[in-house]
Structure formats: C-alpha cells, structure tokens
C-alpha cells in the first residue's frame, strides 16, 4: 500500500501531493521568513567589512591602527572560517535542522558583540573567523530546512527568499555604515541572529528529518503546521516514510560515494562557475574597479546602485524560479553574464589604451556592471544554492550540502584572493575576459549536465537519478 502511494505521488503530469484544493502556504512562508533572519545576518556581515575598514582607518583611527594588510585579512577571514564551518554544519544538521539554527544563532550574535568591544585588530580577526564558521552552519541549515518544509510549487520561491535576505543585509550594512561607526554597526548586526533564535523557538522541525529519525507522530504534527488544516497529509507522510524504507541510511563508503557522486559533481561545478564568474570582483572590489574605469562618476554611488539592483533582481528571481524553471534562468543568466563581462573587459582595455576618455562614457561600465548583477542575481547565484538542497537524497542531504558548501567557500576565498593577481598578470581587461571565458564554460556545463527540478518533489528527484 505504501509503495502504491509512493508510485502514485511521483506519477502524472502535475505531480501533486495534495488531494483537493490548493496547498496552504502560510506556515511555510512564516517559517521561511523566520529562517531568513540567518541569511540576513550573513548579508550584514558580508557588507560590514567595507564601511568598517573605512571607519577604522579614517573616522575612528584613534581606537587602534589598522593597515592595509590587516584590513585585507579582516575582510577575508570570515570566508576562511566558512570553509571550516560548512562540514561542521553538515554534521550538525543530522541532529536537527531547526535545532542547529537555534544553537548557532546565539554564538553568532556573541561574535558580533565581541567585535563591538574589540580592543585590537586581533580580536576582530578572531570574531570574523568564528562568525564565518557560524554563518556557514546557519546558511547550510537554512537552505536544507526550507527545501524540506516547502511544497514543490513554491520551493524555488521560498529558497530564493534566503538570497533576498542576504542581499538585503548587504544593502542595509552599506547604508547604515555611512552613518554608524564600526562598533555601532557591529552592534546592529548582532541583533539579527539573536532575533532568529527567538522567532524559531516555536517553529516545528523539518518533517523529513523527523521521519528519518522514526518520529512519525511529530512529523505529522509538523506537516499540519506547515500545510494547514485543509490538506490531506496522509499521502505526503506516506511518501516520506516510503522513501526512508526504500532508501535506508547506508554508511558503506563505497555505496555512499556512488550515491553522492553525480549530485556532488553537479553541485560543486555550479559553485565553481558561480564563484569564478567575476562576482567577487563586483562584490569585494567594486569601488576600486569603478575608480579605474570611471572618468567622473562617483564610484561609491555606483556601488550602492549595484547593491540595490542586486536586491531587486533576487526578488524577481523568487517570482520566476517556480514558473519559468531552473534551467531557462540558468541559461539566460550565463549568456548575459558572459556578454556583460566581455563588454566590461573591452571597455577597460579601451580605457587603458586611451587614458583621456570622455567622462560621459562612464555609463558603459556601469551598464555592464548592472547587467551582470541582474543576470547573476536572477540565475546562477540563487539557483545554484537551490539545486544543492534539491539534488541530494534525504539520508545524505546534510553531508552532500556540506561538501558543496565547503567547496563553494573555498572557491570564494581563492577567488577573492586571486582577483588582484589576475589583474596584475593580465590587466583589468584580461581578468574580466578570463571571467567571461569561465562563464561560457559554465553555460556549456549547464546545458549538458544540469537537470530541471521545477515542480518535482524532493523524493521524486532522488528516485529519478
């Protein structure tokens, strides 16, 4: 009987888990909004370094001195910490997705409070590294949790909400950093993870994880909270139970490797193309890049414009990902990114060959940066993380997501550190042409290897492999 229910669920053109009517989304949306406070804190931390370093070196230089090299470590140590945090998150989510979020939120808030009262740059380094560890745990847990509680029809939109929250955090940090010093800004950031701990206290655990642990009654109560009272839960619960019965956790290394190999290769490749697409240049070096290409436009104003466009594009991605599908957005994103990067590199080459340019040509690099930002935030940035949470099977989702997340942060750390090297070796134009070539390679990979998961239940995606 259970097997029949399972087969019935994954069959048919609509692949609906609900017997009658539309699914109730309110519980899922509320839980996702609560969880999004974690990525919001991550975005605030990502946007902290630029205004904080400026505050340390200019307005608050009498606190303690910070030179350029020390500032660069302050900006990048969180990424190094995240590299170690991702595998820890993969282990932690085995003991509960929501529980991991709550337990990681409190020390993350403490790290920012430590920054508020820092008396040396070494203390700030320590706090930055461990906040990176905790941010990686929070982001991994949040992505897994939302993918497991969301109905297939809105899973893409709710997962995109996490990226929107992250972009909103960057924008808030940039804006607040213009009026707050580095201590005040750190205090503001500490509120986000603390708020997440509070609002998640009454939110249920992931039903999939509860079934995996044999707690079926709690899983049914959690599903009722997420789906509402008008939905027949027996079919969906039977699907989860059948999946656990037919796919028990196997710790045999050879079998685990066979299970993880294909989704891990796809997920890690997507992370590589995402991190080495030139996004690091626009995120971490946007002001200095604009200074080299602009003739008279204020680079700081342009950086804020890029952050605003990034946020709006992430919002649009959330609206389109469940209607247009993952693959069309990924393909369009890669094409537009390649064109924008190639054009930006060409303008940089023209600027280097003709130093005395006309100021009104500043609109060309700005337009290229905005097109790139729209394409990146609409496609490969949110969808890569969405696919990471969708491709791995339930029993290995924590481990697989940790593997892909660790690789992503490794690529991010290397990408941030190597941009200056690429610029010195190839010139600014050569660096962006290299990123354009990598984007073309990413397009070929997406077309050939990435599956479409739109509207499919997670158990169905696993069975289809």
Automatic annotation (TrEMBL):
Record key words, sorted: Glycoprotein, Membrane, Transmembrane, Transmembrane helix
Keyword Transmembrane included in the entry's annotation: yes
Major subcellular site: membrane
Localization, UniProt: Membrane
Domain (Major facilitator superfamily (MFS) profile): residue spans on this chain: 31-454
InterPro entries: MFS_dom (IPR020846), MFS_sugar_transport-like (IPR005828), MFS_trans_sf (IPR036259), MFS_Trehalose_Transporter (IPR050549), Sugar/inositol_transpt (IPR003663)
Transmembrane segments: 73-93, 100-119, 125-146, 158-179, 185-203, 264-290, 302-321, 328-351, 363-387, 399-420, 432-450
UniProt xrefs under SUPFAM superfamilies: MFS general substrate transporter (SSF103473)
Membrane topology: Multi-pass membrane protein
Protein name: Major facilitator superfamily (MFS) profile domain-containing protein
Domain of life: Eukaryota
């Amino acid at each position: 009987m259970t097997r029949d229910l399972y087969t019935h669920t994954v069959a048919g053109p609509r692949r609906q888990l609900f017997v009658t009517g539309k699914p109730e989304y309110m519980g899922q949306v509320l839980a996702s909004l609560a969880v999004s406070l974690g990525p919001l804190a991550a975005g605030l931390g990502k946007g902290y370094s630029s205004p904080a370093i400026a505050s340390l070196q200019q307005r608050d230089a009498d606190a303690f001195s910070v030179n350029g090299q020390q500032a660069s470590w302050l900006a990048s140590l969180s990424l190094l910490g995240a590299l170690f945090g991702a595998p820890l998150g993969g282990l932690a989510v085995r003991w509960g997705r929501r529980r991991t979020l709550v337990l990681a939120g409190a020390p993350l808030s403490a790290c920012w409070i430590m920054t508020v009262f820092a008396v040396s740059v070494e203390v700030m380094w320590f706090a930055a590294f461990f906040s990176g560890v905790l941010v990686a745990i929070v982001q991994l847990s949040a992505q897994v949790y939302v993918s497991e509680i969301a109905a297939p029809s809105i899973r893409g939109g709710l997962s995109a909400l996490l990226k929107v929250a992250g972009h909103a955090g960057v924008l808030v940090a940039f804006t607040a950093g213009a009026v707050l010093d580095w201590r005040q800004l750190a205090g503001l950031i500490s509120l986000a993870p603390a708020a997440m701990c509070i609002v998640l206290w009454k939110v249920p655990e992931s039903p999939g994880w509860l079934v995996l642990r044999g707690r079926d009654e709690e899983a049914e109560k959690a599903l009722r909270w997420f789906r509402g009272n008008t939905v027949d839960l027996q079919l969906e619960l039977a699907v989860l139970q059948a999946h656990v019965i037919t796919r028990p956790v196997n710790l045999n290394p050879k079998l685990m490797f066979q299970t993880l190999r294909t989704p891990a290769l796809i997920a890690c490749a997507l992370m590589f193309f995402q991190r080495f697409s030139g996004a690091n240049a626009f995120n971490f070096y946007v002001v200095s890049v604009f200074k080299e290409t602009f003739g008279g436009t204020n680079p700081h104003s342009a950086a804020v414009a890029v952050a605003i466009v990034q946020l709006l594009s992430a919002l649009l991605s959330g609206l389109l990902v469940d209607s247009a599908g993952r693959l069309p957005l990924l393909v369009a994103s890669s094409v537009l990114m390649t064109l924008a990067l190639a054009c930006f590199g060409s303008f940089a080459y023209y600027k280097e060959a003709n130093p005395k340019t006309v100021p009104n040509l500043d609109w060309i690099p700005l337009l290229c940066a905005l097109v790139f930002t729209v394409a990146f935030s609409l496609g490969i940035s949110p969808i890569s993380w969405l696919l990471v949470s969708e491709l791995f099977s339930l029993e290995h989702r924590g481990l697989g997501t940790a593997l892909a997340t660790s690789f992503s942060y490794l690529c991010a750390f290397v990408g941030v550190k190597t941009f200056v090297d690429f610029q010195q070796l190839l010139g600014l134009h050569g660096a962006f042409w290299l990123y354009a070539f990598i984007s073309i390679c990413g397009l070929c990979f997406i077309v050939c290897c990435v599956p479409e998961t739109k509207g499919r239940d997670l158990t169905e995606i696993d069975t289809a492999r």
